[in-house]
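Need a sequence for this fold. Nothing fancy.
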């Protein structure tokens, strides 16, 4: 079983920065697709960012492009989400999720991920 644990959330003012971490178990971590999701109006989970294990390609939701960066350190079984210039609209619980492999068209779809963490709260004040 793959276990995911998020950390790094907190309370910041608009324009501030946070770095979220997702620590994962599993021998084959380096091959997994990892995604970050958050709640959004009208849906349970909104895709924020993702990174593939096969080629290292990264993917971002339009509103966070240029502000958020996803990366991974396979030696530490960890994935990071560096968030800069945070806005009040970024407030929410951020979840990391994992899947053994995904076609690029499915990386943004929460239903295709097999494992989920418990989430970490991000609050951005105006």
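Here you go.
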């Amino acid at each position: 079983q793959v276990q995911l644990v998020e950390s790094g959330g907190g309370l910041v003012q608009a324009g501030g920065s946070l770095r979220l971490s997702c620590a994962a178990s599993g021998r084959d971590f380096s091959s997994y697709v990892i995604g970050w999701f958050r709640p959004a109006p009208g849906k349970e989970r909104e895709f924020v960012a993702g990174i593939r294990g096969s080629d290292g390609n990264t993917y971002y939701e339009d509103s966070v492009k240029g502000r958020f960066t996803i990366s991974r350190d396979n030696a530490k079984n960890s994935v990071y989400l560096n968030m800069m210039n945070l806005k009040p609209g970024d407030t929410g619980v951020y979840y990391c999720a994992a899947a053994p492999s995904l076609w690029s068209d499915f990386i943004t779809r929460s239903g295709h991920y097999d494992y989920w963490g418990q989430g970490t709260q991000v609050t951005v004040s105006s």
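For context: The chain has a mean pLDDT of 94.
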